[in-house]
Amino acid sequence: MTFANTLCIVRGGGDLATGVVHRLRCAGLRVIVLELEQPRVVRRMASLAQAMYSGQFAVGDLVAKRMTLPEAAEATESDAIPVIADSVGASVPVLRPSIVVDARMAKAPLDTAIDAAPFVVGLGPGFTAGVHCHAVVETNRGHYLGHVIWQGSAQPNTGQPEAVMGVVGERVLRAPVSGVLQAHRQIGELVGQGEAIASVDGHTVCAPFGGALRGLLYDGLPVAAEEKIGDLDPRRRRDYCFTISDKALAVGGGVLEAVLVWLRKR
Prior knowledge:
Elements (H helix, E strand, L loop, with lengths): L6 E5 L3 H12 L3 E6 L15 H4 L1 E4 L2 E5 L2 H6 L6 E5 L6 H4 L3 E4 L16 E5 L4 E2 L5 E3 L10 E2 L2 E2 L18 E3 L4 E5 L6 E2 L4 E5 L2 E4 L4 E6 L5 E2 L4 E6 L12 H20 L1
Parallel strand pairs: 1-2, 1-6, 2-5, 4-5, 6-7, 7-9
Antiparallel strand pairs: 3-4, 8-11, 9-10, 12-19, 13-15, 13-18, 14-17, 15-16, 17-19
Helix pairs in contact: 1-5
């Protein structure tokens, strides 16, 4: 069975969305990613959204390329994965995909409707299967991570990041004030406790502990006070900063399962 003629649009190109694209692409589906003109992605080096800034970007064997809508429409499964600037999903009715996956992790229903495509999948909280989409995939770490939900919703947003080596809230770097972000370090660098990582309008953001800088918003973006701007990993593994995570692959596997169930029943 070949899926080369089955087009899937993934809304969002962040780290979890990249895990979804990886699973779908490996299964042979044709995938197009929709992103913001200036993506607000923290784990940029493990996200296809970075192609919006770089023009072309690879995460492992996945190669994404920023394209126009006409270019994306002509791309095949053997080409680079198209990433289109489309914040409102205007290209969805033009491209007429078989599948739409909302992977933006907004934690609230936005503008993806259940009739956007023959099969619609939503990631995480904010979606109800049968109302906003046909299936929901659980994104909360734990026993149900990656499970497909055909009726009902995912677990509610906890508001807390997952613990890594006992570190929870401190892992998340936040803007001290509203302003423009200036990066002082690069993703993947090892930083020591107290070292400057970034600043916002002259207010410095320092590392609360030593670790690997796993994520940082793109330099020059405007940010709001208390907005998440970075992610520090106490495990100090540089390779984790540039590869698809276990969580993203689990979520991607759930999406692929849902898609295959739907295709089998068609």
